[in-house]
Amino acid sequence: MKLIDKEFKDKVIFSIRNSKSIVLEVNAFAIDIEDYENREIDPCIMLDKNYREYRWKPTIDLINGKILNWKSKIYCPVHLHYKIRDEFTAKLTIYPNASSENNLELYYEGYVPDEIMCPNGKGYGDYVSLIVEPDGSIQDWNFDNVKKYFEDIAKYSQTILFGNWLSYDSSKKTN
Fold first, then answer.
1. CA 61 distance to own-chain centroid
2. What tens digit of pLDDT does each residue of 17-72 get?
3. What is d(CA 168, CA 172) in angstroms, rounded to the nearest whole number?
4. How confident is the model at residue 134, as a pLDDT?
5. 91 near 25, Cβ under 8 Å?
6. Interatomic CA distance for residues 83 and 155, integer angstroms
7. Buried-most residue among 25, 31, 40, 60 (CB within 10 A)?
8. 3-class secondary structure, 97
């Protein structure tokens, strides 16, 4: 992993604006998430053997606002509202084209990004608040807010930093 330089930052913003697919894989410890009721309602709650605790691990299609691993037994919208214990991590994969070549990957650790995890309001960096339809679609999703979030980071962060995001540029892999 490396800090992001201006050239890579520009590449990320261009790719976010023009990509066909952008996926966010979240791994977060939410307080009281291990309750049986929560596990029955939210299929993204998983026992992580590395951490030996239950974690919230959705995979989200950021362009379409859909949780890809949502297989709920509930047939009505579910309001997920979790307090995250200062341990929100995510991997963002940007697929610039149909092939799996030249994917961009960014890794995040820090406060909960409101612009992504709270489309209906504010989470103040501590909460996830999503209303999820039975098919995994997130109510009130607005991809323009996600784009603006990354554009603002690029615009206002220092040249070598990109907020709390670090990169691994898979287009520069060597075999």
1. 9
2. 888 888 999 988 887 666 656 667 788 888 777 767 778 899 999 999 999 999 87
3. 9
4. 92
5. yes
6. 29
7. 60
8. coil
